[in-house]
Amino acid sequence: MQQITLIPGDGIGPEVTQSARDVVTAAGANVSWDTVSAGMQTGKQQGTPLPASVFESIAVTRLALKGPVQTPFGDDYPVCVERGTGPRIYPSVTIALRKELKLFVNVRPARNYPSVKSRFDNVDLLIFRENSEDLYAGRERMVDADTAEAIKIITREGSERVARFAFDYMRRVGRRKLSVIHKSNVMKLTDGMFLRTAQEVARDYPEFEVNQRVVDALCMELVIRPEEFDCLLLPNLYGDIVSDLAAGLVGGLGVAPGANIGSDCAMFEAVHGSAPDIGGKDIANPMAMILSAVMLLRYIGEAQAADRVEQALTAVLRDRKHVTRDLGGSAGTREMTAAIIRNLSGSSPTNS
Ligand code: NAI
Questions:
Q1: Ligand 1 center to 134 CA (angstroms)
Q2: What's the distance, Cα to Cα, between the start and end of the chain in Å?
Q3: pLDDT grade, residue 73 (50/70/90)?
Q4: Residue 239 parent element (H or E)
Q5: How far apart are CA 246 and CA 226, in angstroms?
Q6: Residue 11 near residue 283 (C-beta atoms within 8 A)
Q7: Nearest CA owner, ligand 1 atom 6
Q8: Phi-psi region of 227 (alpha: psi -120 to 50; beta: other; left: phi over 0)
Q9: Are 107 and 115 contacting, i.e. CB atoms less than 8 angstroms apart?
């Protein structure tokens, strides 16, 4: 049985992670859950938003399903992690987890789903975002009272690792074209390194069509003809922004899943945040978290359970009677989850 660390998180996190857990369990996946807490509420209760118990659990499971955690704006919320050599400070719990667990790539699919209203048809994007470097490397400081500074770090090693991951992943799932995204006309050294390294790695994968786009031009093209793009490879900051844009192309944050993957550990989470405006109201769309759990199931080889969940979700979307408000319905989180589970019962569970 595969153990999974479950981090409910803040805001809508506990509701949508409960949905994902219920659906995965009902699909017959051979998994068990170790629930640990992190986030702003945890910080208030335990004095730290990221307790050691989270790392202790993931050290055993090597796998986590994480709800969103709230990060207050401003400079008064450093996340301090004390493991191994000395304390390290991070701007958020999510960034701390990605860095400490060496989750070097963030995979974010954005595609059309049946009956989910969007401006475009035939969008099927697979986004690979470098997850550990760039302006998110955490080197930000006040130079003096009126000047703030952040350092952009791009390494050849980090760029090569994420490029190889992207091509290997594309090979496994049968994709065909990769666009490398950069701003090397201005950021000549950093983005230049990212682009050049990806192009060098591409020589080892001659079966793929590879092109490149400057990030601002890409944004313009994506909102005009997103169906012409297949896979995107981006440095951290552009990847963060473009993946939210891509979510907007296919129906919004409620339908966008994600996976953070490292060499021996993985953490799955929706693209959306903790949505404090709707937290605890039973109206959040659980789909992005359920699709993140589907990615987790595929990662651990539970392909049949993953297929069953996707089919059940698709049936609920097509039927439209039990979908949440953001999808044009009036169902609550729990009602939509229950409908997905009812649709699972059509075929026999994988492991029961
Ligand atoms: P957000 O994604 O939480 O919310 C943006 C808008 O989308 C809100 O109107 C919200 O109600 C809606 N929304 C988001 N998820 C939804 C869902 N599943 N169903 C229906 N509507 C949904 O982004 P925001 O407001 O910028 O961030 C809120 C908090 O979340 C912040 O503290 C931020 O730092 C944190 N955050 C955490 C992330 C993580 O833990 N991975 C990722 C992004 C933000």
A1: 23
A2: 12
A3: low
A4: helix 236-249
A5: 8
A6: no
A7: 275
A8: alpha
A9: no
CB 242 within 8 A of CB 125: no
pTM: 0.93
pLDDT score at 352: 35
Q: Give the pocket of ligand 1 (CB within 6 Å).
A: 12, 16, 68-71, 94, 253-254, 269, 272-278, 284-285, 288, 326
- Quick one: which of 310, 179, 180, 178 has its CA closest to 255? 310
Q: What three-state secondary structure class fits 321?
A: coil
Q: Using most ligand atoms within 8 A of CB, pick from 108, 116, 274 the residue to mutate for ligand 1.
A: 274
Query: CA 211, CA 127: separation in Å to the nearest integer?
Result: 14
Kindly tell me the number of DSSP H helices and DSSP E strands found in the chain: 11, 14
pLDDT in tens, 186-211: 999 999 999 999 999 999 999 999 99
Angstrom distances, CA of residue 150 to CA of 96, 168, 228, 283, 334: 17, 32, 34, 38, 42
